[in-house]
Write a structure and sequence with these properties.
alpha+beta, 7-stranded mixed beta sheet
């Protein structure tokens, strides 16, 4: 498998993977946005954060990205929330773990400190993935998401990836990150598949 930064040409494949989950409580969206709306959102994210795709034989089989946590609040500039989805046909094949490895390593060089992930229960694969990548459950939001005629609990996972200090390093947008370090991270992540 190969892991790389996504391009706008990849967005329709990312969209197709995400649409596999629209009828499940794994996503709390009731319906998919249009491809155009979805692509605009990914374009906005890609200006600052990594969007990674995993390919097998040239076909995108999973993706992961980070985005702002509590947008609009400057004090959270070094915190992100993550999103990760794997094509149903490729679950359990280390795709998610490899994507998360690459994503977290890139976020480190962007000076991100805290990473949060929200997982609808039950989702044993996602819960296991987050624990295996060093996330810790910090709370459960009871009956906080309503979908498919039922209330669902949401688990919040957290991981600190850079030590904090009184004066943390400023956030580095993805397009300003060290290119050599990015290539090394992506190469290393690809080897983990």
């Amino acid at each position: 498998m190969n892991i790389r930064l996504a391009t706008p040409e990849d967005y329709k494949y990312i969209y197709e993977i995400n649409s596999q989950y629209i009828d499940t409580p794994i996503t709390m969206r009731y319906q998919m946005a249009t491809l155009e709306e979805y692509s605009k959102n990914l374009d906005t994210i890609a200006k600052e954060y990594p969007i990674l795709v995993s390919l097998k034989s040239g076909v995108i089989v999973g993706y992961a990205y980070a985005h702002k946590f509590r947008s609009g609040f400057d004090g959270y500039a070094l915190d992100v929330e993550t999103t990760i989805y794997v094509d149903n046909k490729f679950k359990g094949r280390k795709v998610g773990s490899s994507l998360y490895y690459g994503l977290l390593e890139i976020l480190k060089i962007q000076n991100i400190v805290n990473v949060y992930a929200f997982v609808t229960r039950p989702n044993l694969m996602s819960e296991s993935l987050h624990r295996s990548r060093g996330f810790h459950e910090i709370c459960q939001l009871n009956q906080s998401g309503y979908k498919n005629g039922k209330w669902h609990d949401i688990k919040c996972y957290h991981k600190t990836i850079n030590l904090t200090s009184a004066s943390p390093h400023p956030f580095i947008p993805i397009n300003e990150a060290n290119k050599e370090k990015l290539e090394n991270i992506l190469s290393s992540a690809s080897k983990r598949c």
